[in-house]
Amino acid sequence: MFVLYETPAGYAIFKLLDEKKLEQVDNLYQEFETPEKANKLLKLKHFEKFNDTTEALAAATAAVEGKVAKPLKKTLKKILVDDVQSSLLVADAKLGTAIKDKLSVQCVYNTGVQELMRCIRQQADSLLGGLPKREMTAMALGLAHSLSRYKLKFSPDKIDTMIVQAQCLLDDLDKELNNYMMRAREWYGWHFPELGKIITDNIAFVKTIKLVGTRDNMATSDLSDILPEDVEEKVKEAAEISMGTEISEEDVLNIQCLCDEIISINDYRTHLYDYLKARMMAMAPNLTVLVGDTVGARLIAHAGSLINLAKHPSSTVQILGAEKALFRALKTKKDTPKYGLIYHAQLVGQASQKNKGKMSRSLAAKASLATRVDAFGEEATFELGAAHKVKLESRLRLLEEGNLRKLSGTGKAKAKFEKYQAKSEVFTYQPEADNTLNVKKRKHSESEQTPVKKEEAPVEEDAEVKSEKKMKKKKKQKDEEEAVEEAAAPEPEEQPTPAKKKKKSKHQE
Predict the structure, then answer these.
(1) How many other CB atoms are found less than 10 A from the CB of residue 180?
(2) Structure pTM?
(3) How far is 90 from 394, CA to CA, in rounded Å?
(4) Minimal CA–CA distance to 404: which of 339, 356, 358?
(5) What sign does the dihedral 242-247-252-255 (CA atoms) show?
(6) What does the similarity note say (predicted)?
(7) Whole-number pLDDT of residue 499
(8) Which of 267, 244, 229 is nearest to 185 (CA)?
(9) Residue ranges per domain, the chain?
(10) Residue 365: how many other CB atoms lie within 10 Å
(11) Could you give the C-alpha distances from 238 to 196, 216, 223, 315, 324, in angstroms and in order?
């Protein structure tokens, strides 16, 4: 069983004499307490030395990427060609997989191998033997420097460093320009105070001072290249009646030198802004289309790099730059801020005050997605950012018009939607509702067509008459029964009574 040990000076291949010792991982360090014990367990089979630092850097880079370098491939072919059945102990799993694929050699990489590598590193000087320690230290230092430069050159985190530095310098230039302009206006204002109110543009103001000097030269100077005609006339009229004090030529020279500095800084700022815009479109095109190059560069500078910004969730991107307000709100238990650096984006600026929070939340969600595409995507296109910007503009239009967006078809959403809708219903007067009886009124046409229906009313009256007749009949029957009982009695005085009753009954019949 062979062991591959990588050093800054070259590849060392050892022969493991006792394979059973590898199974006792906890007690393996005891076998490397002294150089004699280490030499009993391991024997140096071959050492492939690097020719120079370039070859060492190539080997280290290949090992980091999990590839087999050419010197290592040749060495393994020489040693393992005779003993095909032997296995190779490797510290890196990726490198072991690559060796197994290319050379068809069984590679072992586990916790026991890691412990063995630490023990070999402890006794490396005695195991390698003929390699001087001073030479090994020099090779390690050179390889470390070369590898650091290589990583710094090709690291994705360091590509956007130019954007971060350019944006920070741009902000510093804006502050300096503002300070210099205030100083120039105050300084020249003692001589010609009216000029500052007439010319509001800073660069035009500075160029006018540089060209003219004192206000006495205003009448003879040609300012057509700097100012419009109407403004030029106002400046010349104000110069004749100015209330400013007189200044010397030395004062004018110093003011003009300050104007030269302002003009040069402004020119450099314009050039730097163009550079930043080009870098942003090359580095993060989708983010630039969504929030603009200045806001996008500030977000990247605040996060540290584009990859760091891509790792942030959209809620963090939304309030990035408002950390003090956030922690103050959390401490005082008040409302947290709705936006940070993203407030200066064009889409948030176009929204009204009540819709800025909703717009910043939507823009932060899309900007977070666009940043991840820019950071981890393979193709650098701005199609995703342009599509999201169209959607955000339509959403802003809906919010500004006051229309509600129906998100779902649930009853709650419908009720919410109907809450803002005015229902228009017209009620008509029904005269039939005034009648309290359950009698339907017939039209005149219906009465002519069906004349038989007129007898319906007297039919009800006949029923009542019949019931009365039945009652009278029952009463008569009772009277007759009583009369018969009286006639059967022996009293003579009451004999004519039934005759009378009979007559009465006949009359009734």
Answers:
(1) 18
(2) 0.56
(3) 59
(4) 358
(5) negative
(6) Belongs to the NOP5/NOP56 family.
(7) 45
(8) 244
(9) 2-154, 163-275, 284-400
(10) 17
(11) 11, 11, 14, 55, 48
What top-level class would CATH report for the domain 163-275?
mainly alpha
Query: pLDDT: is 501 or 377 the higher one?
Result: 377
Which residues, 6+ apart, have CB-to-CB distance to 242 below 8 Å? 192, 193, 194, 215
Q: Which fold has domain 2-154?
A: Nucleotidyltransferase; domain 5 (3.30.420)
DSSP 62: H
Q: What is the pLDDT of residue 487?
A: 63
Tell me: the pLDDT tens digits for 12-50? Answer: 888 888 777 777 777 787 888 888 888 888 888 888 888
φ/ψ of 472, rounded to 5, equals -65, -40
Indicate the burial class of 284 (C-beta count within 10 angstroms; 0-12, 13-18, 19 or more).
Answer: buried
370, 286 contact by CB (below 8 A): yes
Q: pLDDT tens across 213-233, in order?
A: 888 888 888 888 888 989 999
CB 249 within 8 A of CB 164: no
What would be the CATH architecture of the domain defined by 284-400? Orthogonal Bundle (1.10)
Distance CA 380, CA 465 (A): 107
Residue 444 Cα distances to 447, 448, 449, angstroms: 5, 7, 9
Q: What is the identity of the amino acid at 208?
A: T
The per-residue pLDDT for range 376-418, each reduced to its tens digit, is 887 778 899 999 999 999 999 998 887 444 444 555 544 454 4
Distance CA 206, CA 203 (A): 5
Report residue 293 as tokens. Answer: 């190059």
| SS3 of residue 243 by DSSP | coil
Q: Do residues 268 and 363 lie in contact, with contact meaning Cβ atoms separated by under 8 Å?
A: no
Could you tell me which of 211, 216, 208 has the C-alpha nearest to residue 238? 216
How far apart CA 110 and CA 25 sit, in angstroms, is: 11
Structure tokens at 501: 């009753």
pLDDT tens profile 423-473 = 556 677 777 777 666 555 555 554 444 444 444 444 444 555 667 777 777
**Got the DSSP string for 292-344?**
-HHHHHHHHHHHSSHHHHHHS-HHHHHTTT-HHHHHHHHHHT-PPPS-SGGGG
Q: Say which residues have a Cβ less than 8 Å from residue 184's Cβ, sequence separation at least 6.
A: 205, 206, 209, 255, 258, 259, 262
